[in-house]
UniProtKB/TrEMBL annotation:
Ranges where the Prepilin peptidase A24 N-terminal domain occurs: 16-95
Gene3D superfamilies: 1.20.120.1220
GO molecular function: aspartic-type endopeptidase activity
Keywords: Cell membrane, Membrane, Transmembrane, Transmembrane helix
Location in or out of the cell: Cell membrane
Membrane association type: Multi-pass membrane protein
Major localization listed first in the record, in broad terms: membrane
Organism name: Hallerella succinigenes
InterPro entries in alphabetical order: Prepilin_IV_endopep_pep, Prepilin_pept_A24_N, Prepilin_peptidase/N-MTase
Keyword Transmembrane set for record: yes
GO cellular component, one term: plasma membrane
Ranges for domain Prepilin type IV endopeptidase peptidase: 127-226
Official protein name in the record: Type 4 prepilin peptidase 1
Amino acid sequence: MQEIPLWYVAILFAMLGACVGSFYNVIVYRMPRGISLVNPPSFCPHCKKRIPIWYNLPVVGWLLLRGKSACCHKPISIRYPIGEALCGLLGVFALFLANFPSSWTGPVTHWADSFALFWLLLGIYPVAAVDFEFKLIPDSISIGGIGVGLALSFFPGGITPLESLLGALFAGGGLYLIGYLASKILKRDAMGLGDVKLVAGFGALMGVGHAFASLVLASFLGILIMVPYRMIKKEESKEIPFGPFLAVAAPIVYRFGDKFLSFYFGLFGLVE
């Protein structure tokens, strides 16, 4: 595997990313509406007729149909091919980020990091799309992250299976405890279970330390974005979706976690 050139794997990651993006489109549409992800098969959102598999090709299908459904000829939202293309680009970016500074003609050497960043970067799309609108985090992403993390722990160069398992248990359990105590103090729900399961997935992918670093960075990002937003909009919301900030913070910490932790603890004089 180590002799496969980066440019070749980049093409595969782009194609795989677009296919995953197509599935994430299904999650974004079906999951908040309580529709099974596997049954019924892909159907037209207008007339509910089944979509043939050749029209389901990521990006290509939408272009072939010129943005209209084949059955009832009604417009198909451009967000579908945009989501698929974005995930394809994120797949290539994940590979590049994991193997930097390798050249495009050099071999892929960090397989575990490549697949972990692929999962984390592409996960931003469904988490943000669903959580911002419906205040939900798809289990296929949060719980799926635990399975992916445990599987990748058997790859060379990643964390060990024991570290992955303990990371999921302590990161998810620790956040649940924090949310439980905060709920008792504030007399209202302070942390959703979706966030807990998402952080547990981060723990399985990168260990408990970096999972909590993602939590810290996500909190900073939330403050930096939501405070000015509320000042501009001059409106208050009872509930702020935290999942999108977690999803953005996780790949940053995965790639630059050690530097982030050194900077963070340095603020308190804990490291030189």
